[in-house]
Amino acid sequence: MSDTPTNHALATHLKKRIEIIIEAPMLSRVLDLLDRLAVTGYTVIPAIAGSGRRGSWREGQVTEASHMVMVICITDGARIPQVLNPVYQLLARQIGIVTVSDVNVVRQDHF
User: Fold this and answer.
1) Residue 25 CB: number of other CB atoms within 10 A?
2) Under 8 Å between Cβ of 48 and 59
3) DSSP bridge partners of 54
4) What separation, in Å, do the N-terminal and C-terminal C-alpha atoms of the chain show?
5) pLDDT tens digits along 35-77
6) What's the CA gap between 46 and 9, in Å, rounded?
7) Alpha-carbon distance 90 to 71, whole Å?
8) Do the Cβ atoms of 71 and 29 come closer than 8 Å?
9) Which of 25, 46, 70, 72 has its CA at 20 to 30 Å from residue 62's CA atom?
10) In whole angstroms, what is the distance from residue 15 CA to residue 36 CA?
11) CA–CA dist 41, 19 (Å, integer)
């Protein structure tokens, strides 16, 4: 018997990744919305620097109220309109960016 792991090709499954970059004060409202929409696969990450239409910024150059965060969601492609429409309505008048991209996941039952 060999102790060497066998290389098995893992099956992957196509899902959608939604990235929402917003000011930190909006975070609770976005997470509440995602919870109401039953989006169970999300993670929040601090955004520490960036650049946009208004120029570049770095942590420490913005006030506490202007700190940015990124919410990353993984969901089934069929749910994109159901999720994006209310997210857009919530953020339409806020500073932020929303992107959608294809991703492949190994454990599809998690999303």
Assistant:
1) 13
2) yes
3) none
4) 37
5) 999 998 899 999 888 877 777 766 655 555 568 899 999 999 9
6) 34
7) 14
8) no
9) 72
10) 20
11) 12
